[in-house]
Amino acid sequence: QFVPVNNSWGPNNRSVAFRIPTGSKQARRIEHRVAGAESNPYLVLSVILAGIHYGLKNSLNPLSQSRTDNACVSRDPEMPNNIEQALQLLESSKILKDYLTDEYIKIFVDLKRKEQESFNSEISDLEY
């Protein structure tokens, strides 16, 4: 219920990728709500900064903020909901290839697919 499910932003909306909580100016911040604790923080920050740089360099305006707090009725672009969808989006990203290089993305995607294949090949004790 409080996880980002769409690629949007909004104030006090916990279903968006970027949340801007309302409050005093001293407490104002942007929350990036997509990356989890298992993520490489250096890679996450690199990709966020690449996106910011690309947007500023190309004078892009942000999309309109999410119009609903209910993720179930949202019309905002959805986030990938499995590792394969996320890897396919990364592979097809022309923007990130300019920042991370095509070679890095190829190696990273190959590694993550092999990790997923290894995970899928075993049944853990929790699944019995």
Q: Which secondary structure elements does this structure contain, and how are they paired or packed?
A:
Blueprint: E1 6-10, E2 16-19, E3 31-32, H1 41-57, H2 83-92, H3 94-100, H4 102-120
Helix pairs in contact: 1-3, 2-4, 3-4
Domain GS catalytic: 1-128
Family: Belongs to the glutamine synthetase family.
Organism: marine metagenome
| Principal-axes shape call | globular
**Pattern of helices and strands:** EEEHHHH
What is the first-to-last residue Cα distance?
Answer: 27 Å
Helix content: 40-55%
Mean pLDDT: 88
Adjacency order of strands in the biggest sheet? 1-2-3
In terms of per-residue confidence, which ranges show pLDDT below 50 for 5 or more consecutive residues? none
Largest sheet: 3 strands, mixed
Nearest-angstrom radius of gyration?
A: 17 Å
What structural category characterises the helix and strand content? mainly alpha
How many beta-strand elements?
Answer: 3
Family: Belongs to the glutamine synthetase family.
Protein name: GS catalytic domain-containing protein
GO molecular function, one term: glutamine synthetase activity
Pfam families: Gln-synt_C (PF00120)
